[in-house]
Write a structure and sequence with these properties.
The protein is globular. The protein has about 400 residues and is of the alpha/beta class. The longest helix is centred in the first third of the chain and has 19 residues, at about 100-115. It has 13 helices and 14 strands. Strand 6 (about 160-165), helix 6 and strand 7 (about 185-190) form a beta-alpha-beta unit. The protein has a seven-stranded parallel sheet. Strands 3-2-1-14 form a four-stranded antiparallel sheet, with helices on both faces. The relative contact order is 0.17. Bound molecules: 2-succinylbenzoate and magnesium ion. 2-succinylbenzoate binds near residues 136 and 294. The site of 2-succinylbenzoate has 10 residues, from loops. Its cofactor is a divalent metal cation. One of its GO terms (molecular function) is O-succinylbenzoate synthase activity. Keywords: Lyase, Magnesium, Metal-binding.
């Protein structure tokens, strides 16, 4: 397949319910949508789901835009590859910046699956026709507000709930939710907010009797030793998210005993290609995996659902329905029934992109490649940049 041209669209969508983690609060998201078009006119969409601020990862929307426009798109426009995973080799010298790379890699996979006439899930090696979804709930002002949020989503059919925690918002909300829902699959995510400090370790130890599926990323991304110390004395599995950007990180974490479960986010690991590799490596190490989320729009969400259909994704994933996040999405909505999401069976990404709404919600755009001015979407672009490679 030959990449003829590429386009980026920076799109803002308001969240239905604002979301607070241990580090920040947000009411809308700006994600960069990547459109790759081949020499036959087929289109593949991917999403750069980088947060606006560098609090979850060092990447931001602006750094991702800069890296994508200056390095990634110039490397892939004009490239001819047999398999989508080979596109990453074109920008293999780029260090870090995995969110930006992930959007380009995903667009390559969606494009390839479209050309092959197969669903993205099959292209990736997926085997499931539906995946179990959980919801990730932010920190609320009061425990009652949190219980109301849990109630809304349990009533909607979700059977697994993840609660964001932070020092001072942990034992009390977790116990309250557990008391109200004794059978619920429950887990927590600290986004690295705890330290090797007696009060913090005591609070985490007190969560051990709440019957949690896992404690996600209790300590700072690089602090694998404290994570290993907690795992050694806690019966609740530690799940790693921010700590694992590469398969090498996973091997290190395994050697140190720093966790037992892996949250795979294609964004954090640099793409679907890297995510599938991490899935395979985790299976060899005996770590169950699940698919995490970054509040993706429909494009990234559809890719997450496809990824979750691989056999190693045995735990519920953060791939809840579009309506939990957005009143209107840039694709047809992804829906859940009884907390289960069907894996799109159509060829390619498997969801239709609503380009009219996308353009109305767009803040900026960029195009690269000779063909960009001639394709039907050209009217959507404000500028066509000269080819740089
Ligand atoms: O740590 O998993 C995380 C959202 C933004 C940044 C980090 C995380 C999250 C989530 C949301 O937990 C998962 C989702 O519903 O998309
Ligand atoms: Mg997390």
């Amino acid at each position: 397949m030959k990449i003829d041209h590429a386009r980026l669209h920076l799109v803002r969508l308001p969240l239905v319910h604002s979301f607070e983690t241990s580090s920040h609060r947000k009411a809308h998201l700006d994600h960069i949508l990547v459109e790759l078009v081949d020499d036959e006119g087929n289109t593949g969409w991917g999403e750069i789901a980088s947060p606006s601020d560098p609090y979850y990862t060092a990447d931001t929307v602006q750094t991702s835009w800069s890296i994508a426009t200056r390095y990634l798109l110039p490397a892939v426009v004009g490239a001819e590859v047999d398999k989508p995973g080979e596109l990453a080799g074109r920008y293999g010298k780029v260090r870090g910046n995995r969110f930006a790379a992930a959007g380009v890699d995903a667009a390559g996979w969606a494009l390839w699956a479209t050309r092959e006439g197969i669903p993205l899930a099959s292209a990736l090696g997926g085997t499931r026709s539906s995946v179990v979804a959980g919801v990730s709930l932010g920190i609320e002002k009061t425990v009652d507000d949190l219980l109301a949020q849990v109630g809304t989503h349990v009533d909607a059919g979700y059977r697994r709930v993840k609660l964001k925690i932070a020092p001072g918002w942990d034992v009390e909300p977790v116990r309250a939710v557990r008391a109200a829902y004794p059978e619920l699959m429950l887990q927590v995510d600290a986004n690295g907010a705890y330290r090797d400090d007696p009060d913090h370790l005591a609070a985490l130890a007190r969560l051990d009797d709440a019957g949690l599926l896992m404690i996600e990323q209790p300590f700072a991304p690089r602090d694998l030793l404290t994570s290993a110390a907690l795992q050694a004395r806690s019966s609740t599995p530690v799940c790693l998210d921010e700590s694992i950007e590469t398969v090498d990180d996973l091997r290190t974490a395994d050697a140190l005993g720093a966790g037992r479960i892996l949250n795979i986010k294609a964004s954090r690991m640099g793409g679907l290609t890297a995510a599938v590799r991490a899935h395979d490596a985790a299976a060899e190490l005996g770590w169950p995996v699940w698919c995490g989320g970054m509040h993706e729009f429909g494009i990234g969400r559809a890719a997450n659902v496809a990824l979750s259909s691989l056999p190693g994704f045995t735990l519920p994933s953060d791939v809840s329905a579009s309506e939990k996040y957005y009143a209107r999405d840039v694709t047809e909505p992804i829906t859940a029934r009884d907390g289960v999401v069907d894996v799109p069976a159509r060829a390619g990404l498997g969801v239709e992109v609503d380009t009219e709404f996308l353009v109305r919600s767009r803040l900026d755009t960029f195009a690269l490649g000779d063909g960009a001015e001639h394709d039907p979407a050209a009217g959507l672009a404000v500028a066509v940049a000269p080819r740089q490679s």
